[in-house]
Amino acid sequence: MNASEFLGSRMAELRRKRNMTQAKLASIVKKSTSAVAMWETGKRDPDSQMIIELSSIFDVPTDYLLGRTNDPDDRLKYSARNENYRKIERFARKVSNEDLEKAVKILEAAFEHAFNDDDDI
């Protein structure tokens, strides 16, 4: 199964789980029923904006639609992780390089202690 067919099969699966017809989905996304049918059969791909919109409609991460994860609830995991990365980035912008190096050493020690991991992180 190629990537287009995979995306289409995920879309069809999610649409059916919600008891939604192709016509209803087409109406929601303001596209033709034949466009939805072509997406679901892998004959055409929705553009990136449409993939984002579909992910919102089906309440799954885009990575689930694209086959990068098999967990439709991964969005919560990724969003929490991304928020933590943003916090680290904000901290890094506010401190000197010297303080940042100290913070990295503290994090490395904490990870090593918490996970008993002697490998580089």
TrEMBL record:
InterPro entries: Cro/C1-type_HTH, Lambda_DNA-bd_dom_sf
Keyword flag DNA-binding: yes
PROSITE patterns noted in UniProt: HTH_CROC1
Limits of the HTH cro/C1-type domain: 11-65
Keywords recorded for this protein, A-Z: DNA-binding
A Pfam family matched in the record: HTH_3
Keyword DNA-binding attached: yes
SMART domains documented for this protein: HTH_XRE
CDD domains in the cross-refs: HTH_XRE
GO molecular function per UniProt: DNA binding
Protein's recorded name: HTH-type transcriptional regulator ImmR
Organism for this UniProt entry: Paenibacillus larvae subsp. larvae
